[in-house]
Amino acid sequence: MAAAGSANEADRRFMAAAIRLSRRHLGLTDTNPSVATLIVRDDGDGPRIVGRGVTAIGGRPHAEAAALAEAGAAARGATAYVTLEPCAHHGRTPPCANALVSSGIARVVGAAADPDPRVNGKGYAILREAGIEVVEGVLADEAADLMRGYLMRSEKKRPEVILKLAVSADGMIGRRDSAPGKGQVAITGAVARRQVHMMRAESDAILVGIGTALADDPSLTCRLPGLEQRSPIRIVLDRDMRLPAGSVLVRSARDVPLLVTIASDCPSARRAELAEAGVSFLAVDVHEGHIALPELLDDLAARGVATLMVEGGAYTARAFWNEGLVDRLALFSGPAEIGAGGIASPIDPADTPQGFRLLREARFGADLYREFVRSA
């Protein structure tokens, strides 16, 4: 049995490259995480990548299989960098751990651990029993951060909830106005808005409350050139099924999936009208007149949703926040003020939220971006 190895600077460099590659299919791999594998060999002239793989759209084949197929015979004696422990369970195809053994790989460097009980150390055990050197935990936190939704769905049986807020200089997230389409106000600039579209492209689903749907008439799609097909599932929390059939969301339901919540007492005529337009429905429990959010998250996880982006409005944001259901806060702060008639942010942008830590900070044009994650 091979002894555990240790990581070197080249290992960290190639693992960082694998982690960047793993972003390619975020939000597109169904119930599987977007994992990347690099096959690297050194024949005396320095290390070179001979195989690359990322979990395919839909979840199969896995990254290891794709990378080994590209490497071919060059995989023998090489090192495999995997961002998640190779799977160890049999299906119609052999486990990735066994595929690595069969390829003649000499060394495997892994990043994040897999909490799936069918894996959880078993993949590394298969490799070690075959005499392959295994190095675990290289850039594990960085890899786990990108697949936090998968890890949370595996461990807690609910999606990771990302609350995105754009807050003005005077602490507002919008303007009160009852006329459809008049409540929306630009708080951030074009660069920050493009970043939000990238976040949508990497999420499984995006959620808003009916108040935002009525006030802003949004599309909630990804509109970055070339990434239009990566729009997430759209969800509207609509206790009384008030979403108009003529809204942008409903009119695009046949192009981009739209889920509208439905309680047991919702009018059947409205349901039939929306169903005719291509809308799907998500049955929800109601507690004291409000949608039961923990149960909603359970049901979304059962549907395969691992990353849920909550984009508004104030009532919905506050509901998720107050129930302790937010795992990541994506906070954009713009330089302009909204003034009278503004809707106050449920979170003070000047302070680090209690129980959270600042993960990263960036500037997008004139706007400040800060990302907070729940402390372990």
Name the features:
single chain, alpha/beta, Cytidine Deaminase, domain 2, Dihydrofolate Reductase, subunit A, five-stranded mixed β-sheet, metal-binding, zinc, multifunctional enzyme, EC 3.5.4.26, EC 1.1.1.193
What does this protein look like?
The chain is of the alpha/beta class. It folds into 2 domains: 9-147, Cytidine Deaminase, domain 2, CATH 3.40.140; 157-374, 3-Layer(aba) Sandwich (Dihydrofolate Reductase, subunit A), CATH 3.40.430.10. The chain has 12 helices and 18 strands. Helix 3 (96-103) runs parallel beside helix 4 (122-129). It is globular and about 70 Å long. 45% of the residues are buried. The model has no long low-confidence stretch (mean pLDDT 92).
CATH fourth-tier homologous superfamily of the largest domain? Dihydrofolate Reductase, subunit A
Give the beta-strand count. 18
**How do the SSEs run, as a string of H and E?**
HEEHEHEHEHHEEHEHEHEHEEEHEHEEEE
CATH topology descriptor of the largest domain: Dihydrofolate Reductase, subunit A
CATH architecture of the largest domain: 3-Layer(aba) Sandwich
Question: What is the radius of gyration?
Answer: 23 Å
| End-to-end gap | 34 Å
**What proportion strand?**
25-35%
GO biological process, one term: riboflavin biosynthetic process
Organism: Nitratireductor pacificus pht-3B
Pathway: Cofactor biosynthesis; riboflavin biosynthesis; 5-amino-6-(D-ribitylamino)uracil from GTP: step 2/4; Cofactor biosynthesis; riboflavin biosynthesis; 5-amino-6-(D-ribitylamino)uracil from GTP: step 3/4
Catalytic activity: 2,5-diamino-6-hydroxy-4-(5-phosphoribosylamino)-pyrimidine + H2O + H(+) = 5-amino-6-(5-phospho-D-ribosylamino)uracil + NH4(+); 5-amino-6-(5-phospho-D-ribitylamino)uracil + NADP(+) = 5-amino-6-(5-phospho-D-ribosylamino)uracil + NADPH + H(+)
